[in-house]
Amino acid sequence: MAVKTILEEIERDVIDVVNTNFIYNNTGVVPSSNDSALSYESGIEKKGKKIDTCVLYVDIRNSVALTVKHHTQTMGRIYTAFTKAVLKVARYHNGHTRNIIGDRVMIVFPSTNCYTDAVNCAISINHIAVHIINKQFKGVVFKCGIGIDYGELRVIKVGIQRHGNEHAENKGLVWVGYPANIASRLTDNANKTIESTYYEVVRNPINPRAIKPLFPLSSGFFGNTSKYDPNAPLYLPSIETVAISPEEFASSLRQHSNGSVYTTDGKLIRFEKKNKSIVYPSILMTEAVYKGFKSVNPIDSTITNNFWKEQEHQFKNVNSKVFGGSIYWIIK
Fold first, then answer.
1. pLDDT digits (tens, 9 = 90+) for 179-200
2. Using the 8-state DSSP alphabet, how is residue 237 labeled?
3. Where are the beta strands (DSSP E) in 135-265?
4. What is the mean pLDDT of each run of 10 residues along the chain (332 residues)?
5. For a 10 Å CB count at each end of the chain, is N or C smaller?
6. Running DSSP on this structure, what letter comes out for residue 131?
7. Which run of H or E residues covers position 183?
8. What's phi and psi for 194, nearest 5 deg?
C-alpha cells in the first residue's frame, strides 16, 4: 500500500470526526472501554458519557534517579509491587483504574461517595509508600505524589477495530475535562521541593482617591459616591512590601519618556530578586475536593485535627485553592 492511500484514509477519518455529532449521556458509574454505550464507529453519531466525580493520579517520585542508583531488577520489583498495591487499594476504595502510563496511575471513582473514597484512597496509597514499600525494600527511599480534583469528565472511546493480540492495544478511553488535567498537575508537584524565584518589592501604594473612574457616579438619591479627588496625591505616604512573581513584576514595569522607570502598582522604592523553596506534602487536592470531603465527613479526624493545610502555590492552570497533607493510617 502506498503511503498516499493510508493518508487519504486518515483524512477521511478526520473529516468524519469533524462532521459527526458527539452526544454525551450523564452517568454516575465509571465507564470502561467495553461499555456498549460508548462508540467510535465511522459515519454515525458518536456516543460518549459525562460524569461528575473525583479523579486521582499517583506517580512515583524521582523514578529516573532511583533507576540510576538501584539495580534494574530492584526497580522492576518496586514498580510491580507498588502498581499492584495501588490497583488493589483503589478497588477497595471503590475506585476504577483507567490508565497506567509508566509509573503513573489514574483512578476514577463513581459519583456516589466520591469525595470520601478518593481521599481515603489517597491516604491508603501514601501509607503503602511510607510503611510498606520502604519497609520491604531496604536502602530505597521511595516516595509517591498524589493529586485529586473534582468536576465534570467527558469520556469518549478512541481507537480502531482490530482482532487478535492487538485488539486491546488499539482502543482506549479518553477522559476530557479539567479534573483530569488538574489532578495530574497536582501530582506533578506533590511530595516535591519546588524552587522558585520571586521579587520582593518595596513601594508606596497608589492612592485610590487619585484614580479617576472611567464612569464617574453622578449625584443621586445617595449623593455622589465617587471618592475621586483631582487634588489627591498619586501615591500614599505609607510603604508596603509585597512578594510577586517575575511575570507579575515584568508586566508592572513601565518607562517614562525621559527614561525613568515606574510600576503600575505603586511608586517603586526598591526591589530585590529572591529564591525560595516550598516543600509540598504527598497528597494535594483542590478546594472542591477538600470542601466536598469536609461536608460529608465533618468529624473525620483529619478534619477535626486540621491535618489538611492550605498550600501556597502557583501551579500552572490551577486557579483554585489547594489543600494537602502527608497523611497515613494509624494501624493499631
1. 999 999 999 999 999 888 989 9
2. S
3. 144-159, 171-176, 193-205, 240-244, 253-255, 261-263
4. 78 80 86 76 77 96 61 76 93 93 90 98 95 84 94 83 53 85 95 90 90 66 64 92 89 83 86 92 98 98 97 90 96 82
5. C
6. I
7. helix 178-189
8. -105, 120
- Closest by CA to 180, choosing from 57, 49, 80, is 57
Determine the residue type at 44. I
User: How many residues can be counted in the chain?
Assistant: 332
Nearest to 77 by CA among 13, 10, 18, 140: 140
d(CA 143, CA 189): 12
pLDDT at 33: 73
Residue type, 123: I
Burial 18-34 (b: 16+ CB within 10 A, else e): eeeeeebeebeebbeee
Domains of the chain from N-terminus onward: 23-192+280-325 (3.30.70.1230), 195-211+224-278 (no CATH)
User: What are the C-alpha distances in Å from 24 to residues 47, 111, 156, 193, 234?
Assistant: 6, 16, 9, 40, 55
- The Cα–Cα gap between 206 and 234 comes to 6
**CA angle centred on 113, ends 33 and 61, rounded to 5°:** 65
| CB distance 95 to 107 below 8 Å | yes
